[in-house]
Amino acid sequence: MPGGSLYDYMHKNHNVLELSQLLKFAIDVCKGMEYLHGNNIIHRDLKTANLLMDTHNVVKVADFGVARFLNQGGVMTAETGTYRWMAPEVINHQPYDQKADVFSFSIVLWELVTAKVPYDTMTPLQAALGVRQGLRPELPKHGHPKLLDLMQRCWEAIPSNRPSFNEITVELENLLQEMEVN
């Protein structure tokens, strides 16, 4: 897409996002993921490099190379994705569902807030081993409290405790509305 990836936008240009822009990007991602999950598709590799921007800075979910339809039982088991954004249940080769994408989104959200690459002092394998043992990125001190709370709920170790993309979208839209009113 003309605007390139969100990863490049943030890391190659060293862009620190204003909260309103960050929320708009996050909402765009959530709406794309709502659509996929509504059609029983798990992306399985949600990360900023797979989020493309159009000429109007609207973020689109891309790279469906490892995306799969959710099977009849509603769970999957194959490990796929990128370690720095991967859910612990995927790393552990346990059954997983759409909530694995929610975990990956939490890391994307952290990246949007901090403008840093997750676990940048570790190799991808070290990051994966850490996540298996409960490691999560350090919460930024400057983040909006509601955003930090959402982030933590999205990276919960127990997948069923994570919110759905529908719920996340509502929270983010409410926060954006609050900001625009104030």
UniProtKB/TrEMBL annotation:
Transmembrane segments: none annotated. SUPFAM superfamilies: Protein kinase-like (PK-like). The keyword Kinase applies. PROSITE patterns: PROTEIN_KINASE_DOM, PROTEIN_KINASE_ST. Residues 1-176 form the Protein kinase domain. Pfam families: PK_Tyr_Ser-Thr. The keyword Kinase applies. Keywords: Kinase, Transferase. GO terms for molecular function: ATP binding; protein serine/threonine kinase activity. CDD domains: STKc_MAP3K-like. This is Serine/threonine-protein kinase STY46. It comes from Mucuna pruriens (Velvet bean). The gene is STY46.
